[in-house]
């Protein structure tokens, strides 16, 4: 243990690998010194675990099997979170619903982050006509109200979680492109870019190795901070009946299904609501912590 | 063809229309292979801009530039880039804030496909007198002089033929300045390098260069032998003023003579 | 404009230490430095990386985050800097003590015009109208011999030459009229003519307004001819304190070595003398 630590923190790393591992480790140390970030990380890890281990935590059958005799039961030892209007176990549904939430988060992040980053960096670095065309494109997408476009999109395809994800992704990337472009414009003027050009580095190389590391943290942070909004939009679409379709245990749809019983059987919509809140909060805290930890000027 | 650098009637303009500003106005000089040429003069007179034009970082608005025996290409190939290297004036701005020193030195080696990278990185650190333990530090963890040495090492690691040096020792204490200047002299002798050196320190220019151009307001007012720099024999009034100011601040500079 | 009696030292430093707890171990940048300063010009010279800039930043309490500043005493104009809270420090910086950073262009805001930045600095410390601030800013730019202040006023930092950025920074710091000015290599990018003029301004402020000036520089000849006293630093410590006029009588081998390494206009030599550093210099 001690050996590994001193290897990671060596004053004179013997190899680039050791130096890189050391850098990860120091970032981790910085992150772990921040209790709020750790709470965020814990929540995100919990989400991951629950998604990964869902079938072992709660039987899959319980998600769909209806039991009309046991409708709307309050939380008890048998049903930890109670049951919904069709007598399905809410605990099982929330746990399995985490898979859907995770899928939304992962897919949106995979589409939105790189797309926005690349478009923004290329526009900002290359400039000229490329910039103008790419930015007009961005403006067009930015001009659409997000939920309305998502609605139209889902209505044109078929309602379902995939359409919801696609709709969210397509309406979410423009702010990332703008962010990346603004940063690139400032970076492009600096002497270290001029130095890279003078060394003969090609434009793609400069974008990848000089511009991207500087844009990346703000994009990652913005993405984690936006995750909350993305989860909420997905939930909103679910709530409107345009996202995940029943009987899928999507949290937003579950909140919607329980809205008729809020006053008397609060748990039916509150518990999935709390799950949404918690996961949003987790990503938010983690995003804040990452912002501090990823800045090497801090370590 | 034995001129390494040939500049004729160089003009550089920044901005457009009424807001345009002519930073360099008709500058001409030549530097033969294996020689060093000094540029001194007023702050803001366009010295750095000339170096940037020679390394194709700004487009001239007029005039002709020849480097290493050919006209300056519009989009220089890698081989050209390797042969002509620039040490930037500002060691704070010219190092990437998120690249470690190791990465900063490795990057050019990778771009040009050099072999024995480990060895070369360590050698260049040793050459500029930076302890090897700084290798994995980031620029913000170094002092001004330490950064400047990284910037010099980065230019040297590519083994260029023509080195454009923009105030390479302004942030170094004199003992390290002496080491760097000696290193540059040795390299020049060993590899027949050509230097174009910008400095405000007339003694440094006189020590390093064969000939010197004195600049003021975008123009060269005088080109002279560096012997004249030592004695202060100039024709142009600006050069004379410059030389007079270099003799120390108000009081007699003789106090420094070690008895 | 100040309540300090003229005899009291403007600056008292005792046992100042600054260390950076990097995760790869402790870097001790300053290791126990003590000095006091009145209304004079104090030069600091020394090895690159010996902690000169760090002392300046410590006096401003601007040492970046992992850095830890400790010491027995750190007083600016009788006010304790070590125990001051962020509010007091805000009043102190600019008002009592200001610093011209070694990296002038780096410390300017890259997306703000030069003129606007100087104006803001003025308005932060003096209640003046925007118009008056603009006039002051223009004056300050002229004072540091910027030949075309109208143009420079509207420039962004990346559009300035090295020396112009340095002078913009000086103009900004002077317009706040501090009691103590720390100038970290203020003239390294200036040609000798402008350098002399900028030094004359600083000299004036010291002799007329009674400002205290700390001048960090590598230029031995300049420090010897400009300053009253010189501190020589090596590896985070002061190894020697000298009257500037007596630099030639230095006894520490590092100082003597520095003088020997200077290239001189008056004599040509093919090689410059270099220095053999003795590890013993960093001890004790
Ligand atoms: N990108 C730019 N846009 C507009 N003006 C510029 C730009 N770069 C430089 N200039 C102007 O060109 C002039 C010459 O600048 P340059 O950096 O070449 O001066 P220099 O001789 O190197 O001065 P110093 O000794 O102070 O570094 C300056 O007046 C500067 O304001
Ligand atoms: N953030 C940091 N983390 C670790 N070490 C640092 C950090 N900042 C500075 N140092 C180290 O502290 C030492 C003192 O730095 P400082 O900038 O004060 O030197 P200096 O005397 O001003 O040198 P120069 O004349 O080259 O500017 C240097 O060895 C530097 O590497
Ligand atoms: Mg310059
Ligand atoms: Mg310094």
Automatic annotation (TrEMBL), chain A:
GO terms for cellular component: plasma membrane. Residues 98-287 form the ABC transmembrane type-1 domain. Keywords: Cell membrane, Membrane, Peptide transport, Protein transport, Transmembrane, Transmembrane helix, Transport. It is a multi-pass membrane protein. GO terms for biological process: peptide transport; protein transport; transmembrane transport. PROSITE patterns: ABC_TM1 (PS50928). InterPro entries: BP-dependent_transpt_permease (IPR050366), MetI-like (IPR000515), MetI-like_sf (IPR035906), OppC_N (IPR025966). The keyword Transport applies. The keyword GTP-binding does not apply. It holds the Pfam family BPD_transp_1. It is found in: Cell membrane. Its main location: membrane. The chain crosses the membrane at residues 28-58, 100-126, 219-245, 265-287. PANTHER family: D,D-DIPEPTIDE TRANSPORT SYSTEM PERMEASE PROTEIN DDPC-RELATED, OLIGOPEPTIDE TRANSPORT SYSTEM PERMEASE PROTEIN APPC. Belongs to the binding-protein-dependent transport system permease family. This is Peptide/nickel transport system permease protein. It comes from Arboricoccus pini. The lineage of its organism: Bacteria, Pseudomonadati, Pseudomonadota, Alphaproteobacteria, Geminicoccales.
From TrEMBL, chain B:
GO terms for cellular component: plasma membrane. This is Glutathione import ATP-binding protein GsiA. One of its GO terms (biological process) is transmembrane transport. It comes from Arboricoccus pini. Residues 5-242 form the ABC transporter domain. It is an enzyme of class 7 (translocase). It is found in: Cell inner membrane; Membrane. InterPro entries: AAA+_ATPase, ABC_transp_ATP-bind, ABC_transporter-like_ATP-bd, ABC_transporter-like_CS, P-loop_NTPase. The complex is composed of two ATP-binding proteins (GsiA), two transmembrane proteins (GsiC and GsiD) and a solute-binding protein (GsiB). GO terms for molecular function: ATP binding; ATP hydrolysis activity. Its main location: membrane. Pfam families: ABC_tran (PF00005).
From TrEMBL, chain C:
The keyword Methyltransferase does not apply. It is found in: Cell inner membrane. InterPro entries: AAA+_ATPase, ABC_Ni/Peptide_Import, ABC_transporter-like_ATP-bd, P-loop_NTPase. Its main location: membrane. GO terms for cellular component: plasma membrane. Residues 11-260 form the ABC transporter domain. It is a peripheral membrane protein. Gene3D superfamilies: P-loop containing nucleotide triphosphate hydrolases. GO terms for molecular function: ATP binding; ATP hydrolysis activity. It holds the Pfam family ABC_tran. One of its GO terms (biological process) is transmembrane transport. Keywords: ATP-binding, Cell membrane, Membrane, Nucleotide-binding, Transport. Belongs to the ABC transporter superfamily. This is Peptide/nickel transport system ATP-binding protein.
């Amino acid at each position: 243990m001690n050996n590994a630590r001193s290897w990671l923190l060596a004053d004179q790393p013997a190899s680039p690998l050791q130096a890189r591992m050391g850098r990860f480790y120091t970032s981790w140390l910085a992150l772990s010194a921040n209790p709020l970030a750790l709470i965020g990380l814990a929540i995100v890890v919990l989400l991951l675990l629950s998604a990964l281990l869902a079938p072992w935590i709660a039987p899959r059958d319980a998600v769909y099997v209806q039991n009309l005799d046991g409708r709307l039961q309050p939380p008890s030892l048998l049903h930890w979170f109670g049951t919904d209007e069709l007598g399905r176990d809410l605990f099982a549904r929330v746990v399995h619903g985490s898979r859907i939430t995770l899928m939304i988060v992962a897919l949106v992040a995979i589409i939105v982050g790189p797309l926005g980053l690349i478009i923004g960096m290329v526009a900002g670095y290359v400039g000229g006509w490329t910039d103008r065309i790419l930015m007009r494109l961005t403006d067009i997408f930015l001009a659409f109200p997000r939920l309305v476009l998502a609605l139209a999109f889902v209505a044109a395809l078929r309602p379902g979680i995939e359409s919801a994800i696609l709709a969210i992704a397509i309406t979410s990337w423009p702010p990332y492109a703008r962010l990346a472009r603004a940063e690139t414009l400032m970076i492009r003027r600096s002497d270290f870019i001029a130095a890279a050009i003078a060394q003969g580095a090609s434009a793609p190389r400069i974008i990848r190795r000089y511009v991207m590391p500087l844009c990346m943290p703000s994009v990652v942070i913005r993405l984690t901070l936006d995750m909350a909004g993305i989860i909420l939009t997905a939930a909103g679409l679910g709530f409107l009946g345009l996202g995940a379709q029943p009987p899928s245990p999507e949290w937003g749809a579950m909140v919607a299904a329980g809205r008729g019983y809020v006053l008397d059987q609060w748990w039916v919509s509150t518990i999935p609501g709390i799950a949404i809140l918690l996961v949003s909060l987790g990503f938010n805290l983690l995003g804040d912590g990452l912002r501090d930890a990823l800045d090497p000027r801090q370590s | 063809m034995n001129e390494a650098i040939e500049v004729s009637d160089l003009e550089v303009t920044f901005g457009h229309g009424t807001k345009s500003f002519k930073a360099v106005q008709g500058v001409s000089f030549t530097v033969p292979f294996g020689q060093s040429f000094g540029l001194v003069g007023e702050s803001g007179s366009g010295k750095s801009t000339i170096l940037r034009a020679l390394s194709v970082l700004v487009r001239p608005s007029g005039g002709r530039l020849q480097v290493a025996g050919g006209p300056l290409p519009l989009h220089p190939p890698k081989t050209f880039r390797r042969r002509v290297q620039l040490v930037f004036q500002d060691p704070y701005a010219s190092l990437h804030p998120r690249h470690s020193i190791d990465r900063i030195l490795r990057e050019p080696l990778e771009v040009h496909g050099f072999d024995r990278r480990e060895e070369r990185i360590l050698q260049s650190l040793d050459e500029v007198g930076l302890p090897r333990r700084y290798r994995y530090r980031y620029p913000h963890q170094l002092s001004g002089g330490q950064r400047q040495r990284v910037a010099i090492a980065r230019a040297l690691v590519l083994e260029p033929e023509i080195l454009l040096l923009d105030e390479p020792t302004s942030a170094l204490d004199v003992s390290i300045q002496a080491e760097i200047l000696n290193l540059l002299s040795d390299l020049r002798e060993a590899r027949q390098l050509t230097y174009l050196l910008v400095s405000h320190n007339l003694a440094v220019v006189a020590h390093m260069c064969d000939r010197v151009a004195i600049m003021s307001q975008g123009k060269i007012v005088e080109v002279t032998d560096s012997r004249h720099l030592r004695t202060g024999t100039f024709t142009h009034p600006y050069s004379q003023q410059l030389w007079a100011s270099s003799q120390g601040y108000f009081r007699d500079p003789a106090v420094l003579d070690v008895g | 404009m100040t309540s300090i009696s003229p005899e009291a030292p403007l600056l008292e430093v005792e046992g100042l230490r600054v260390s950076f707890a990097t995760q790869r171990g402790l870097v001790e940048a300053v290791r126990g430095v003590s000095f006091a300063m009145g209304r004079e010009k104090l030069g600091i010279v020394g090895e690159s990386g010996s902690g000169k800039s760090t002392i300046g930043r410590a006096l401003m309490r601007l040492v970046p985050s992992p850095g830890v500043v400790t010491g027995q005493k750190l007083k600016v104009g009788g006010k304790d800097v070590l125990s001051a809270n962020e509010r007091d420090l805000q009043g102190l910086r600019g008002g009592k003590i200001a610093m011209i950073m070694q990296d002038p262009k780096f410390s300017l805001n890259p997306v703000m015009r030069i003129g606007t930045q100087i104006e803001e600095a003025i308005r932060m410390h003096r209640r003046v109208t925007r118009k008056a601030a603009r006039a002051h800013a223009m004056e300050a730019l002229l004072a540091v011999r910027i030949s075309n202040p109208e143009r420079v006023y509207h420039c962004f930092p990346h559009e300035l030459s090295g020396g112009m950025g340095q002078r913009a920074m000086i103009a900004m710091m002077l317009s706040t009229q501090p009691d103590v000015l720390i100038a970290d290599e203020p003239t390294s990018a200036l040609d000798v003519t402008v350098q002399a003029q900028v030094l004359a301004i600083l000299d004036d402020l010291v002799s007329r307004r009674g400002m205290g000036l700390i001048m960090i520089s590598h230029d031995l000849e300049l420090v010897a001819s400009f300053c009253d006293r010189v501190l020589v630093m090596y590896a985070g410590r002061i190894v020697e304190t000298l009257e500037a006029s007596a630099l030639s009588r230095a006894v520490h081998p590092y100082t003597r070595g520095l003088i020997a390494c200077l290239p001189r206009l008056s004599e040509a030599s093919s090689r410059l003398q270099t220095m053999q550093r003795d590890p013993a210099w960093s001890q004790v």
